[in-house]
């Protein structure tokens, strides 16, 4: 059975009163913020925050250890690398195809077995709970590059990459975060099960099983297996974080030149297709998260496999006509096919202040 695909080609005419594409270039923290949250401290420059020292300590230790593992891996231990990549890919798909494209953006529909599979794969990545992950990401899309964005790239590469996990959230993230609806998640019994047993599930799927399985079946040593598990976990975290950092900073903006997210092949390679980020922030409901299907986009391949099985359906994507209009109106001119039409900033912003785009999370 061919996968069912919903093609959106609606002509955009209605305008919204909220300007979505004005990038906030103002200083990150203001006096008003400090008045709002008295616990804010100034440590250096404009980078004001309250540090979570336990997170800093753990992340530093784990990264140093992972660097050491990479440095010491040798040809006799390639099997560990293969096992790590396999486990990392399962967790990675849980993040990209599950938490991101399914649970956050609802780019497609999934039957019960697929939802269970996505939940388990996501949990094996060892990241935040599904609810926290989805809420942070919806807030990120709605308030990109403002103080309310949990990993606001205006605060620099380090903050957007992992610094945001080392400090208390900006008061705006908490305030505006409450305005983002995530009630749909709690309606799903699969998500409720995940939340109820999150800690034991995470320990079991991210750490215990990936360590014990190769020990039991292939007799690998405990140290080797534990090292592989830790290396896999930290590497996968960095691949995910690169979407929030590098894919918001360095690259072209062929679809919308008014927003920070960019197109980056390197991040797409690392994050299984999530680096086509200028496109994704323009069409967040496209299940491919890219204009193209399988070009550096393993996640789309697997969603299509599940669609062939009938487990995934109603895959959403925009029509070529709609993409062309957006590219010509608001792209930076770098699109391979329609990149020659450059429009004024006012035209681009006006065109994208639309009802359709307002529904982008
Ligand atoms: Zn983003
Ligand atoms: Zn997204």
From TrEMBL:
Its main location: membrane. It is a multi-pass membrane protein. Residues 81-284 form the Fatty acid desaturase domain. CDD domains: Delta9-FADS-like. It is found in: Membrane. Its cofactor is Fe(2+). InterPro entries: Acyl-CoA_DS, FA_desaturase_dom. The chain crosses the membrane at residues 53-73, 80-100, 112-134, 201-220. GO terms for biological process: fatty acid biosynthetic process. Belongs to the fatty acid desaturase type 1 family. This is Fatty acid desaturase domain-containing protein. It comes from Cryptolaemus montrouzieri.
């Amino acid at each position: 059975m061919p996968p069912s695909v919903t093609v959106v080609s609606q002509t955009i005419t209605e305008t919204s009163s909220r300007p979505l594409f004005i990038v906030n270039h103002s200083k990150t923290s203001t006096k008003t913020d400090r008045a709002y949250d008295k616990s804010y401290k100034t440590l250096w420059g404009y980078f004001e925050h309250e540090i979570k020292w336990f997170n800093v300590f753990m992340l530093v230790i784990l990264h140093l250890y992972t660097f050491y593992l990479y440095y010491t891996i040798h040809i006799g231990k390639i099997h560990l690398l293969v096992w790590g990549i396999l486990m990392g890919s399962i967790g990675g798909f849980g993040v990209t195809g599950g938490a991101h494209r399914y649970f956050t953006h609802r780019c497609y529909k999934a039957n019960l077995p697929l939802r269970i599979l996505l939940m388990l794969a996501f949990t094996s990545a060892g990241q935040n709970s599904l609810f926290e992950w989805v809420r942070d990401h919806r807030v990120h899309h709605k308030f990109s590059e403002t103080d309310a964005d949990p990993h606001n790239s205006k605060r620099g590469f380090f903050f957007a990459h992992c610094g945001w996990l080392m400090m208390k959230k900006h008061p705006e993230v908490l305030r505006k975060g409450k305005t983002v609806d995530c009630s749909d998640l709690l309606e799903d019994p699969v998500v409720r099960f995940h939340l109820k047993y999150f800690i034991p599930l995470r320990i079991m799927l991210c750490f215990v099983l990936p360590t014990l399985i190769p020990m039991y079946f292939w007799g690998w040593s405990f140290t080797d297996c534990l090292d592989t598990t830790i290396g896999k976990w930290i590497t996968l975290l960095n691949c995910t974080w690169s979407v929030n950092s590098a894919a918001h900073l360095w690259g072209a903006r062929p679809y919308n030149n008014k927003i920070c997210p960019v197109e980056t092949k390197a991040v797409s390679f690392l994050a299984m297709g999530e680096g086509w980020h200028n496109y994704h922030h323009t069409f967040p409901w496209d299940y491919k998260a890219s204009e193209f299907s399988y070009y550096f986009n393993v996640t789309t391949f697997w969603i299509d496999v599940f669609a062939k099985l009938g487990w995934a359906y109603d895959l959403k994507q925009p029509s070529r006509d709609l993409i062309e209009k957006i590219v010509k109106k608001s792209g930076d001119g770098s699109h391979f096919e329609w990149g020659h039409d450059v429009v004024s900033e006012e035209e681009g912003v006006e065109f994208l202040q639309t009802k359709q785009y307002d529904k982008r999370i």
